[in-house]
């Protein structure tokens, strides 16, 4: 088999065979295919596209490029959850305890943040003592005893994706449905769970801004999951403004705790209950998503989900006292306020701009080597639709470097758009793809 022939074939818009795709993935992962040939094929795929069958073959080849996690020692139907990324998205810290409190075993591997979207691993590391790396046996024991464990993604899971994504990032080939699908689903399928709930974001703070593109991505990922024998559901959700009020690691963990206490913002509470309902349903602890929703709501109202979060934190070496004493989190020393410049209503809040403002305040990374400020971030005082008066507080930016905090505040101010009349209320959960 010849790599040049494979590049030519895709350049001409022809369909690649399973063997040709496996040859490319294994060769590039092992280093026998150079970057320049891999880049050429990625660009040909980007321009000519891939069929659903090709996408499935690419996903499977990437899945089998490394270890396949064996979760067979965990009792019950294991359910994973993945978000395509957003601003203020701390749902894993809420839906995990909700689903686990209803008897669904959650064995999840999460990533770090890069750019304006936050990573679950970074958020968990804001909890004093919390370990995001545990031995495989301990991981399984934690899920069996607590019902929930979330750890960092290992380098041995789908290593082809790590190499290909780094190459896509510098060759302008990121934004392609087949390449996005194979990147996400290769890791999810290799992670060992029996079922997957996908939170596919759309809007200006999402990777797929257009609703139609998000639906197509969700549909493709659901098909890939089902073809691999995993029950898979995609939930298309709005990311045209930040989710909840908190953006930034410690701030988001505190908001997750408040949500599990029943005090969370309406949108994060609604989305978390919705996602948990599908996890409970796929985990066979409810006969329908509607029954799963009622179970999740009861777990929230009774305090069982909050108790599950505390058990989860303690199980991974963290201090469960953070749920009652927020001073245990890393504390900011600087802040800057964003004030309304006119009377009216908040017409929109550009989620991406808020995410970038939070990143620049210290809460995110521009490169993987950057150190983040776990105390940094933004607390919104107003959401879309809120009435405001000139001089009223819109948001507060926190951190430990006043220069960075002030820069973040200037960027955050540009994200708010004030208009004379109240806007129509948007729909948070836009579509369910089964």
Automatic annotation (TrEMBL):
Highest rank taxon of the organism: Bacteria
Name under which the protein is recorded: Pyrimidine-nucleoside phosphorylase
Keywords linked to the UniProt accession: Glycosyltransferase, Transferase
Keyword Glycosyltransferase (UniProt): yes
Lineage: Bacteria, Bacillati, Bacillota, Clostridia, Peptostreptococcales
Species whose genome carries this gene: Anoxybacterium hadale
EC numbers for this chain: 2.4.2.2
